[in-house]
Amino acid sequence: MHRxxxxxxxMKTLLSRRAGRAVLTxxxxxxxxxxxxxxxxxxxxxxxxAQPQMPPMPVEAQIVQPEDLVRRIELVGSLNANESVxxxxxxxxxxxKIHFAxxxxxxxxxxxxxxxxxxxxxxxxxAQASQGLSEVEYKRAxxxxxxxxxxxxxxxxxxxxxxxxxxGVELAKxxxxxxxxxxxxxxxxxxxxxxxxxxxTPGQGLVNLVAINPMRLEFRVPEIYLSGVAMGQMVxxxxxxxxxxxxxxxxxxISPEVDLNGRNVKVVAELPNDDxxxxxxLFARVSLQLETIKGALMVKEEALVPQGNxxxxxxxxxxxxxxxxxxxxxxxxxxxxxxxxxxxGDIVVTAGQMKLRPGAAAAPVNLPKAQ
Length: 371
What we know:
Helix content: 25-40%
Number of strands: 20
CATH class of the largest domain: Mainly Alpha
Radius of gyration: 51 Å
Structural class: alpha+beta
Number of domains: 4
Distance between the termini: 114 Å
């Protein structure tokens, strides 16, 4: 029995020692783990502190400034002579003389053609002789009547004869005048279609006469823009035939009717042509100013980023990217008006948007002056 008790005591002692060693081992493990975690945290903080910050993303940008936006429409038209006429005879006869050189500038009243007028001149002399005789007879009849030696009937007959002969003289003068063809206005004669000595007939075209200073510009404006067109309005005109040149004209006529086929209105402007370089028939490109919008906010077209049916615009606020929807308006030569989405003074990104995210740091590499 004493032996059994001794063995039990020894067993308890052994178990107690093993339990103590297990506790010590657990405590040591926990302590080591804590030291490892603390060391790892300290190392991570040092590593993060040592890692360099990402620099702001370089982008191109512009500063939005209000400006006056001129609303224009671009149209096409053609030049016509301010006046143009084909010189035609009213009577038949032989063409005796041509008094101009082709392409010559002439003034109103200058003689262009002379037709053989020998017959008409003879008829005028005959009519004048008859008129002279009638005048003598009328004076004699009037004198006799005043002396109670003639009759009223004789005097009245003499007066009627005089008036007929006077009309005959006027008729002969008119016939003679029609044998000469003169310029009805200042202009340039074209290429003649007849030679001296040829026989001409009434209505036959002889030569064209055009007045080209000023010129007449005709173009059509769609009816939706009609409210922006007014008398005296200025237009800028360029010509494919004269590259680099711009001529300014003034509207002087607007058709009172709208063309039902094209739904447009014919407009006529006057263009100066002092040097004579403009010619009838030239194709013209017309820039017509409709209105001026004060304080418009304009950005480059590249500033707008399409997303579905919407347009987005990227701005920089304190060096951070902000993305917002924008409402575009009028467009003009690579620029677009922003009706809603930006305000004056905003920095708008114009290139590099695809690499940006909201809140990302970005820095403009070029800030052009406000236009």
